[in-house]
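Justification of resources, computational component.

The compute hours requested in this renewal are based largely on the per-chain cost of generating structure records like the one below. Each record pairs the submitted sequence with a full structure-token output. That output is archived, and it is also reused by downstream analysis tasks.
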Amino acid sequence: MIEVRELTKRYGSTTAVDGLSFQVSPGSVTGFLGPNGAGKSTTMRVLLGLAAPTSGAALVNGRRYAELRRPLCEVGALLDATAVHGGRRACDHLRWLARTNGIPTRRVAEVLEQVGLAGVARKRVGGFSLGMKQRLGIAAALLGDPGVLLLDEPVNGLDPDGVRWIRGLLRALATEGRTVLVSSHLIGEMELTADRLVIIGRGRLIADTSVAELAERFRRGVLVRSPRQAELTAVLAGAGASVETLSDGGLSVNGMDVARIGELAAARGIPLHEVTPRSASLEEAYVQLTSADVDYRAAEGARR
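The structure output for this chain reads:
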């Protein structure tokens, strides 16, 4: 489990993280979202002992990272896939990491196979593409078979096949009962991958929720289509619903669920061609939640 308790981190007069609290439990993929400068990277650095908190705590399995005797066997992390010596072979890089934490050398071959780099194990990292470096970084995170994983933008540089692979890997790791925290700017990818979301802005918590709960929170009513649209509008409005005619001719009904719409239409003999609950996409919900916390925003309709 990951626990962040009233975490504050200041750099001089700048507050990067401000009284932040959340938990990440085993068995699910948790997306860690927020605008640029929200404090995501700082929070992950504190969790990994790379930065000291000004106050509060960031714990893994109830302890600070510095207190873990063999940290790679408890926490696997990927923060910067390019932070590898270019002259080192992929297998040697992982062997060195394994040796520092008492991990059997056989794990090196296993994780290289798992991430698809077995064929280039003896090639130097300096010749790797960004996507290959990402795979190597993921191999390093998996090396100690940890129960907790922290990954920052793990699909960066991956091709579509690689993106699908990492998506499946993350979900499989969570299904095994591991704790998986993934920081990303790719909202659409998180919609396909994450079970829960922790959203922050300006170092503070905005939302800690499941993807399903967030979609329900930003539900946009029910889309209804009928050949007797005017009559249906009058019936629904008379029963207390708010009805709006859409540009494509459909009706957007708010304040009434699908079952009630169907009952009212059936009672009047009005045929329905479509009755579909409508929710905002995760991207739309995210934009609404974080709109006040974006530091850098391009002008609408700006051109070069």
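The longest strand covers residues 14-24. The mean pLDDT is 91.
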